[in-house]
Design a protein that fits this description.
This protein has 427 residues and is α/β, with parallel strands linked by helices. The chain contains 14 helices and 18 strands. Helices cover 38% and strands 20% of the residues. This is Heme chaperone HemW.
């Protein structure tokens, strides 16, 4: 089911991310903090109980990993750093200061880098805000998920509906000018009315950036297992699509551009670090479960904190690696780039890599354009706005089409043409 188009569609000039934002997203550094005060009922990220002993072991293992990774990044300057988790804001000011110093001591961070920290609203306090600012953090991403008390309880959140507003006010008072808010929809008990009220509360906080994710039940999580056992039901796909359409229309009316399927920003407030991922640029990663891409090699650290730390302590491998191929690179460029509002743009990629994309996907792009699954973009293709909620379906269709000979709009057999020249339109 496709969401109904909003009555005031985005003009091409508002599709993001901007050229300037994409140019600024050059190299990223991700730092995973695997601790939470309480694990949410929907979460399958690598996180565990917080204790002084566990944090000390984590910092010691991080020192070992930064020493191991730093030589590969010699000469590289990072334009974004992202402290994610888990809950980075669960660390004490003293422990976070040590972690930030480890990172800065091992890697070159640009003076104007975007440095983001994920924070849960209940943990935002004045001493932590001061420590974060001193360490160079200039962007906070706060997880609220909902402003409905019953929904918060069902999701396992430990803050009340008022706490995100209080945390925002504290952050503003301490000089933070780039604040992002995470919301969720489409989970059991959620409906359009509740989402609309949550959006009212979220917009009243005047964030620069907002992420809104449609819930996916993950096996092994309390809420996910209840959904998969059918103890509780998700809203219908039609209802989820209508929620997404309403959310998109409301945010656009408030001045936010939907620059990625689940992400919305005011002008100039796109998440630089996430653009590094979506544009498939090099990113280093540290900590359990962290994944990176560096000089043509993908790596994923061991998921469990114990295994990751023990491997580093034993001077053994803490990750699994995979050397990319022309095909895997092309698949990732398409899969990630088509989630952007502007879609795939040849200027975002070196000419040789774009040639690999066209070699594999040129015929599939032509078919997608003919069938209305794609539309021309400035220097490539994008998913039409009305299809954004089901973007993954279009991407899966393109990958399947690229794997088989298929017929073009006039019945001719198209076999891996590389001469596709996308029509140009206004950015």
């Amino acid at each position: 089911m496709e969401p109904h188009p909003a009555s005031d569609p985005l003009t091409a000039s508002r599709l993001g991310p901007s050229v300037a934002a994409r140019a600024a997203a050059r190299r990223g550094l991700y730092v995973h903090v695997p601790f939470c005060a309480v694990r949410c009922s929907y979460c399958d990220f690598s996180s565990g109980a917080l204790s002084a002993a566990a944090v000390e072991r984590y910092l010691a293992a991080m020192a070992l990993e930064t020493a191991r990774r730093a030589p590969d990044a010699r000469g590289a300057v990072f334009t974004s750093v992202f402290f994610g988790g888990g809950t980075p804001s669960a660390l004490s000011a003293r422990h976070f200061t040590r972690l930030a110093a480890l990172v800065r001591g091992a890697f070159a961070i640009a003076d104007d880098a975007e440095i983001t920290l994920e924070a849960n609203p209940e943990s935002v306090r004045a001493p932590l805000l001061e420590a974060w600012a001193t360490a160079g953090v200039n962007r906070l991403s706060m997880g609220a998920q909902s402003f409905d008390a019953e929904e918060l309880e069902g999701l396992g959140r430990i803050h009340d509906a008022a706490r995100p507003g209080e945390a925002f006010a504290l952050a503003r008072a301490h000089g933070f000018r780039r604040l992002s808010l995470d919301l969720m929809f489409g989970f059991p008990g959620n409906d359009g009315g509740r989402l609309a009220r949550t959006l009212d509360r979220a917009l009243a906080l005047d964030p620069e950036h907002l992420s809104a994710y449609c819930y996916i039940p993950e096996p092994g999580t309390p809420l996910g297992d209840r959904v998969l056992r059918r103890d509780v039901a998700l809203p219908s796909t039609d209802a989820q699509a209508d929620e997404y359409a309403m959310l998109t229309a409301r945010l656009e009316a408030a001045g936010f551009a939907g620059y990625e399927t689940s992400n919305f920003a005011r002008a100039g407030a796109e998440a630089r670090h996430n653009l590094v991922y979506w544009l498939r640029r090099d990113h280093m990663a540290l900590g359990p479960s962290a994944h990176g891409l560096w000089n043509g090699v993908r790596f994923g650290n061991h998921y469990a904190f114990e295994r990751w730390a023990a491997s580093l302590e034993a001077d053994a491998s803490c990750d699994a690696t995979e050397i990319e191929s022309a095909r895997s690179r092309a698949d990732e460029i398409v899969m990630l780039g088509l989630r952007l509002g502007c879609g795939l743009d040849a200027s975002d990629h070196p000419a040789t890599r774009w040639a690999d994309v066209l070699r594999r996907y040129g015929a599939a792009f032509e078919q997608g354009l003919a069938l209305g699954r794609l539309e021309p973009a400035r220097d490539g293709v994008r998913i039409p706005r009305a299809h954004r909620f089901v973007a993954d379906d279009t991407i899966a269709w393109l990958m399947a089409a690229a794997d088989r000979p298929s017929r073009g709009p006039l019945g001719d057999v198209v076999r891996g043409r590389t001469d596709l020249t996308p029509a140009r339109s206004a950015p």
